[in-house]
Design goal:
Layout lengths: L1 H31 L10 H39 L4 E6 L6 H9 L3 E4 L2 H20 L4 H11 L1 H4 L8 H11 L7 H9 L2 H15 L2 E7 L6 E7 L2 E8 L4 E6 L5 E10 L5 E11 L21
Parallel strand pairs: 2-6
Antiparallel strand pairs: 1-3, 3-6, 4-5, 4-7, 7-8
Helix pairs in contact: 4-9, 7-9
Length: 301
């Protein structure tokens, strides 16, 4: 595209130079009376110059006006088709067991907005589960027991125990003492203290994560979406046209969250749009509703 534009521009410049050269040559021949011209300028020459001047003036004005109109229409069409049109909706946490976690982690359209240490924990647990699932092949009752153990971090809120770490250690000590299930016994040997500590942290992250669904409603133009926590980038999302993305967000402390969309205007200059900003908080205090008597604000007749 750029080479084609350069060739067109060079062609226009060469054509313009040739036109000016022809005008200069005709003027010199006319003034000196060469060929079929008479010496000096006469009425016919002035008429010719007048027609030529009018033609050049009309051509220049027409070119500028048509170019401006074309540019105006092109910009309007660009703005109409390239508007940032993104919705951000809070949704229930869909990571409810280890299967949905594995699927979510492997999904290119799912992102975790967490601090770096928590991100490493999530990566670690994924690799740990991937190892277990590809190593401990079992079925029947043993498969049910394995699924129950792997699902503990996602269901710990439903247990009576207060500490998931203690629960794991209790299971390691007492579960399947007769070693009836080979794979469960192997799992107990594979789980280290470090694994249990990280599973405990992982459980806290997943159970308290806030889930947001982001949809790019524009079916033509995409953009780069940044999620920032106190002006620090938490995750980057290549927000493609007509696509939906999942963000799972978790922080231990309050933060100010911004969703920023970066795109390009008609002149290829990058600009940013703040789509949403809100305070992230784990404070679960119930907000009391405010009662307003409209009679105090509106005259009702």
């Amino acid at each position: 595209m750029n080479n084609g534009n350069m060739k067109n521009n060079n062609y226009k410049i060469i054509l313009l130079i040739l036109v000016f050269l022809i005008i200069i040559i005709i003027t010199i021949l006319s003034y000196n009376g060469l060929l079929f011209f008479k010496t000096g300028f006469n009425d016919l020459d002035f008429l010719f110059f007048n027609i030529l001047g009018d033609a050049i003036l009309v051509g220049v004005v027409t070119h500028i006006s048509s170019k401006n109109i074309s540019l105006f229409i092109s910009k309007k069409e660009f703005d109409r088709n390239n508007k940032i049109n993104i919705t951000i909706n809070k949704s229930r946490n869909e990571i409810v067991n280890f299967k949905t976690f594995m699927d979510t982690y492997e999904n290119n359209n799912a992102f975790f907005a967490v601090n770096e240490s928590d991100r490493k924990v999530i990566d670690y647990v994924y690799k740990l589960y991937d190892c277990f699932l590809n190593t401990l092949m079992c079925d029947g009752v043993e498969k049910q027991l394995l699924d129950t153990l792997l699902n503990m971090p996602f269901l710990f809120n439903y247990y009576a125990d207060e500490n998931i770490k203690d629960s794991y250690e209790e299971i390691i000590k007492k579960f399947d003492p007769k070693k009836r299930f080979n794979n469960i016994s192997i799992l107990k040997e594979l789980l280290t203290k470090e694994d249990i500590i990280k599973l405990s942290r992982f459980s806290n992250i997943i159970l308290n994560s806030k889930h947001y669904i982001i949809t790019n409603l524009n079916n033509i133009e995409g953009c780069q979406l940044l999620v920032t926590s106190d002006n620090i980038v938490a995750c980057k999302i290549p927000c493609l046209p007509n696509n939906t993305y999942d963000i799972f967000m978790h922080y231990d402390e309050d933060h100010w969250i911004d969703f920023l969309a970066f795109s390009f205007d008609y002149d290829s200059k990058e600009y940013v749009t703040n789509l949403s900003g809100f305070k992230y908080s784990n404070n679960r205090e119930i907000i009391k509703p405010i009662k307003i008597n409209l009679k105090n604000f509106i005259n009702i007749k």
